[in-house]
Design brief:
53% of the residues are buried. The chain has a two-stranded antiparallel ribbon with strand order 1-2. A hairpin with a 2-residue loop joins strand 1 and strand 2. The protein folds into two domains: 182 residues, MFS general substrate transporter like domains (Growth Hormone, Chain: A), CATH 1.20.1250.20; 204 residues, Up-down Bundle (Growth Hormone, Chain: A). The protein is mainly α. Helix 3 runs antiparallel to helix 4. It is globular and about 60 Å long.
């Protein structure tokens, strides 16, 4: 039996549901710090440096957690790493809720990031390996789509409860994952690919043994090209995505929209993106896989260019409705593109190194999520108008989309080679 044979159909649904719920919890916790800041600032009165440290504290944990979690999932199993990671970010989220100082908040947030980073490679690898061959891309994209939905739930709770109840976000973000831990332990089964990969003969490459979970093996056996394309796409797309998530309301406000209109556009960006992820999850396994992937990556830079041009006209008042529609479409395109990358990452590597391969790709994407907002700050510090900021990042977006299309062509199954004709 192949190392890539999925679990029995009776167990697949439980595994995918468990991964979707775990991903939603991760999306909730990732959003909670930014949403809680409105209540933390008047209570603790942090300096700008203290607030920045709190908001960015999870980044280092996310990076280290993704590398370590991916490596361990290849060594001790996807399920074990997933359950421990979810328990970790649940416990440290509760510590955020109980914190009495900015220093403790920052430390608790960094440790929360360690669990968040460790969970994602196992979620993606387990969803891939539990699925039948014709549902692997779709199910992994579905797991990714749960992340923005979890973030949307966090936003809704924050809006309904108000800034003064910011601790509720961390309490919910901690209790729900901890309640899920025993359910995941019962529902989910370890991927059959994991023990089979460990039982298989270990190949020797260039005189060195390629062990399960080996970082060197990620680039071996001809995987260097799709790996570099994956890393480049992840880094640049996440850089642009997080630049938009952090700076888009400001850019739109400076472009002439009111704060309410800019907030509405941001909501459309997130909701439209989440729904587009769900749609992409279904399209990735059908005969429209090629056209769908091509459409997302070709449309993304075109939509960004159109938005920048619309903001550059200097018309007062600006055409609000077309701008909001364009922002929503940009959200659809960029999050659909992310869904494809998260689906492609586990499919790029064999089972023995799937965890570490996905973990390194996710970690490099986290570096992009740091670089993007900093780039936005530098560009705004130069006094550039909103349209020029968007035009400046356009070449980065084009490179990311070209690399992703090349990755799609390189890794597509034979029956999906139609992407070549879609271009």
């Amino acid at each position: 039996m192949s190392a890539e044979t999925p679990t029995r159909p009776a167990h697949v649904g439980a595994v995918i549901i468990g991964c979707v719920l775990g991903s939603a919890c991760e999306g909730f916790d990732l959003q909670s710090a930014g949403l809680a800041a409105g209540g933390i600032v008047p209570l603790f009165k942090p300096s700008p440096d203290q607030l920045t440290n709190f908001l960015t504290a999870s980044t280092a944990g996310l990076f280290i957690g993704a590398l370590l979690g991916g490596r361990l999932s290849d060594s001790i199993g996807r399920k074990k790493v997933l359950i421990v990671s979810i328990a970790l970010f649940g416990v440290f989220s509760l510590l955020n809720a109980a914190a009495w100082s900015m220093d403790l908040l920052s430390w608790a947030r960094a440790l929360t990031g360690l669990g968040l980073g460790g969970a994602l490679p196992s979620l993606l690898a387990l969803a891939n390996e539990a699925s039948s061959q014709h549902r692997r891309h779709a199910n992994v994209a579905l797991v990714f789509a749960a992340m923005p939905l979890g973030g949307g739930v966090a936003s809704l709770i924050s809006m309904l409860s108000g800034p003064a109840h910011w601790r509720w976000l961390f309490m919910i973000g901690g209790l729900v994952p901890l309640l899920m831990v025993p359910l995941l332990a019962v529902w989910t089964r370890e991927s059959p690919s994991f023990p089979r990969a460990h039982a298989a003969p270990v190949p020797v490459l260039a005189g060195a043994v390629t062990r399960a979970g080996s970082f060197r093996a990620v680039l071996a056996e001809g995987r260097w090209l799709p790996t570099l394309l994956l890393w480049l796409s992840f880094f640049l797309l996440l850089a642009v995505l997080y630049l938009l998530l952090n700076w888009l309301p400001t850019l739109l406000s400076q472009g002439g929209l009111s704060k309410t209109q800019a907030a509405g556009a941001q909501i459309g960006f997130n909701i439209g993106g989440a729904l587009a992820c769900l749609g992409m999850a279904q399209l990735l396994e059908g005969r429209f896989r090629g056209p769908s992937v091509a459409t997302a990556f070709i449309a993304l830079p075109l939509l960004m260019w159109t938005l920048s041009r619309l903001l550059s006209f200097g018309v007062r008042p600006p055409p609000v409705e077309p701008i909001i529609v364009l922002v929503c479409l940009v959200g659809c395109a960029i999050l659909s593109a992310q869904a494809f990358l998260y689906a492609a990452a586990p499919a790029t590597y064999p089972a023995a190194i799937r965890g570490v391969g996905v973990g390194v790709a996710v970690a490099i994407g986290r570096l992009g999520s740091i670089a993007g907002p900093k780039l936005g700050g530098v560009l705004k510090g130069m006094g550039l108008p909103s349209s020029q900021v968007l035009m400046f990042v356009l070449p980065l977006l084009v490179v990311a989309c070209v690399a992703a299309i090349a990755l799609a062509c390189y890794t597509a199954p034979v029956r999906y080679r139609s992407i070549g004709q879609s271009l």
